[in-house]
């Protein structure tokens, strides 16, 4: 980046888990100014802003009175995405939104339309596309290194997520584990294999006991059979896994299995057993890489690696899976064409 | 106890014959195989008497129990004939290729009061039995979901001939893990959805599939039976289960007890197993159920139920809808 480039001014809405990750990325990103953090819980916003040398606001309006950002980064719970996207778009700001874009198609489509109408860019944080291991695996698939792919399997999950007002525990707000979590793998697989032909799914959500678990079966138009598993039932931790099998080779990856550092630190005089902490450090985490890419696209007008239409397509597949899980029926997404 | 092996068509016959060599008081006395060269070689190797026709073996051979390792479609006639000759039977999986055949086999064994055990060695795997105890002890809480895999490589030969195998990867590699799932949670499968396809070879039979299921007690499950391991895979395949319960999760790999060998001689990386031998324990279990006149750990009915799920998977893939069990 050249020295004479004008800094891009970014504000982050929401100082929760994702808001903090995004704000920290911007705070250390060359050519970017983190101009403010908005959270109705002003103390939460304040402590994050202080830590990162930025400013805190309790509402987007009060921030927009004081600052003139180029980009609004929306890291609020999913049900509030559209509200903030629309407000930011009307204020002429480019928008980066956490995934999923929304919980239903009409709201997601509204958000995309409003951004187009106001001539602002919209980016959706389908961050798995920016995880180096997933990126590398896709590269191998696209280059034909696995031959014709037959099956793909993904796993993603861990303990039940915590969010403000426990919003993940209400599937109407989260859209279910399929829409909130498995959309990552759905988007990634669609990026690798194209459009989906049909969907079948099982989903344990009715119990509302913070033990969600889902299986999704996808048949792609190119013939690939994919199986996705997602869980929020684990007692602890978080992990992902992927394997792609083709007639010329197989790739397997498990996040637990590729951790370079395992430390066990003795708890001083506490009498408690040491806690083992795995670490997988990188110069830039995938969120930084993703956000830096979005900022680059804003500067240059380049097409992003994930455009809003991709996020919408992933949402469509996710909602088809939810529908299948509810009805017990197979959901066909398009007319069969060219299937081998 | 004296054993016969009927046919070495299935490669597991060799593992079972080797396991018998390690069992005190067990002896392989008879090999019957319509494939003369193969049968004679096996009989020679294991010091048994060779018969070309299994009916002759039943009439003249000296043995108490038989292990049936013929091509899948021939299981039924051999098991029924052996039962009528009052031999106890350990039958290679899948038990049969149709429900009618399976029922005939089970009935013949009941009528003649002989044991029928389905060769599900994974039930005898020490790590999988440990997890069974873990589930039964309640330490995982109520079981919510079961994720299984039994991936492998296309075995070639008659496995690719529908007239002899009755099905491809989905029949071959679904039954082991379904049997474990039923055993683990003590419930039957109510519904199966499956994608089945040929993606890895020009074989006329299916070589991959993915099953999504629901048990009668509400547990959800999935299974991957694909012959999707490439030639360079460090071992033949895998058997894994992830058991998700309200109080915990267990991931078990039946062959996790292995070391890795980097072999310049063979120009490959290999996983070399060092755990207990489940084939040996399975045959020990079979002998024990005969000696004690108890029920086999994996019965003929267990074999039929597991096979039924594979047949339902084919039906689901054909009609592109979930299929309810039992099949009518």
From TrEMBL, chain B:
<protein>
    <submittedName>
        <fullName>Dehydrogenase</fullName>
    </submittedName>
</protein>
<feature type="domain" description="Gfo/Idh/MocA-like oxidoreductase N-terminal">
    <location>
        <begin position="13"/>
        <end position="119"/>
    </location>
</feature>
<dbReference type="InterPro" id="IPR000683">
    <property type="entry name" value="Gfo/Idh/MocA-like_OxRdtase_N"/>
</dbReference>
<dbReference type="Pfam" id="PF22725">
    <property type="entry name" value="GFO_IDH_MocA_C3"/>
</dbReference>
<feature type="domain" description="GFO/IDH/MocA-like oxidoreductase">
    <location>
        <begin position="129"/>
        <end position="248"/>
    </location>
</feature>
<dbReference type="Pfam" id="PF01408">
    <property type="entry name" value="GFO_IDH_MocA"/>
</dbReference>
<dbReference type="InterPro" id="IPR036291">
    <property type="entry name" value="NAD(P)-bd_dom_sf"/>
</dbReference>
<dbReference type="InterPro" id="IPR055170">
    <property type="entry name" value="GFO_IDH_MocA-like_dom"/>
</dbReference>
<dbReference type="GO" id="GO:0000166">
    <property type="term" value="F:nucleotide binding"/>
</dbReference>
<dbReference type="InterPro" id="IPR051450">
    <property type="entry name" value="Gfo/Idh/MocA_Oxidoreductases"/>
</dbReference>
């Amino acid at each position: 980046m050249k020295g004479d480039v004008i800094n891009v001014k970014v504000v982050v809405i929401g100082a929760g888990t994702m808001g903090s990750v995004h704000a920290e990325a911007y705070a250390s990103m060359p050519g970017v100014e983190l101009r403010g953090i908005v959270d109705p819980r002003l103390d939460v916003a304040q402590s994050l802003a202080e830590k990162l040398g930025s400013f805190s606001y309790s509402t987007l309006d009060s921030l927009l009175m004081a600052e003139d950002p180029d980009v609004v980064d929306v890291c609020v719970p999913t049900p509030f995405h559209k509200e903030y996207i629309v407000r930011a778009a009307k204020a002429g700001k480019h928008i980066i939104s956490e995934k999923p874009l929304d919980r239903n198609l009409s709201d997601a489509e509204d958000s995309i339309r409003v951004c187009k109408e106001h001539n602002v860019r919209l980016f959706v944080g389908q961050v798995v596309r920016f995880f180096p291991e997933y990126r590398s695996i896709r590269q191998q698939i696209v280059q034909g290194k696995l031959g014709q792919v037959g099956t793909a399997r993904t796993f993603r999950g861990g303990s039940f997520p915590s969010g403000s007002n426990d919003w993940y525990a209400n599937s109407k707000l989260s859209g279910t584990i399929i829409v909130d979590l498995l959309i990552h793998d759905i988007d990634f697989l669609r990026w690798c294999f194209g459009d989906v032909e049909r969907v079948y799914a099982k989903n344990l959500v009715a119990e509302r006991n913070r033990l969600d678990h889902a299986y999704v079966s996808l048949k792609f138009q190119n013939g690939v059979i994919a199986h996705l598993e997602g869980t929020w039932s684990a007692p602890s931790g978080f992990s992902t896994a992927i394997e792609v099998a083709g007639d010329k080779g197989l790739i397997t990856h498990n996040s637990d299995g590729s951790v370079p550092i395992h430390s066990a630190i003795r708890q001083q005089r506490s009498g408690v057993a040491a806690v083992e902490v795995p670490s997988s450090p990188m110069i830039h985490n995938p969120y930084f890489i993703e956000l830096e890419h979005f900022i680059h696209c804003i500067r240059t007008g380049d097409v992003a690696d994930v455009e809003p239409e991709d996020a919408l397509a992933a949402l469509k597949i996710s909602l088809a899976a939810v529908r299948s899980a509810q009805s017990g029926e197979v959901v066909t997404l398009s007319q069969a064409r060219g299937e081998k | 106890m004296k054993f016969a092996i009927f046919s070495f068509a299935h490669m597991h016959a060799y593992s079972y014959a080797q396991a018998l060599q390690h069992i005190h008081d067990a002896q392989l006395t008879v090999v019957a195989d319509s494939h003369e060269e193969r049968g004679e070689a096996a009989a020679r190797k294991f010091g048994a008497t060779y018969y070309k026709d299994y009916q002759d073996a039943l009439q003249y051979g000296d043995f108490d129990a038989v292990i049936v390792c013929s091509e899948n479609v021939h299981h039924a006639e051999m098991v029924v004939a052996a039962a009528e000759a009052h031999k106890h039977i350990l039958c290679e999986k899948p038990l049969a290729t149709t429900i009618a055949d399976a029922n005939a086999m089970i009935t013949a064994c009941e009528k003649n009061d002989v044991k029928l055990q389905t060769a599900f060695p994974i039930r005898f795997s020490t790590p999988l039995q440990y997890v069974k105890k873990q589930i039964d002890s309640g330490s995982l809480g109520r079981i919510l979901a079961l994720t299984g895999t039994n991936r492998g490589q296309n075995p070639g030969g008659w496995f690719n001939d529908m007239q002899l195998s009755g099905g491809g990867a989905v029949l071959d590699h679904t039954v082991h893990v379904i049997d474990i799932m039923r055993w683990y949670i003590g419930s039957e499968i109510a519904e199966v959805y499956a994608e089945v396809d040929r993606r890895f070879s020009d074989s006329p039979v299916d070589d991959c599939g993915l099953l999504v299921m629901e048990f009668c007690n509400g547990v959800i499950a999935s299974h991957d039976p694909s012959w999707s391991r490439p030639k360079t895979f460090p071992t033949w395949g895998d058997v894994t289960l992830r058991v998700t319960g309200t109080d915990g999760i267990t991931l078990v790999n039946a062959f996790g007890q292995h070391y890795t060998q980097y072999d310049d001689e063979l120009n490959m990386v290999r996983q070399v197993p060092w755990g207990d031998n489940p084939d040996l324990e399975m045959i020990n279990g079979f002998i024990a159920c005969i000696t004690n006149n108890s029920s086999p750990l994996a019965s003929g009915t267990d074999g039929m139920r597991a096979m039924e799920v594979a047949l339902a998977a084919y039906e689901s893939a054909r009609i592109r809808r979930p299929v309810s069990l039992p099949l009518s």
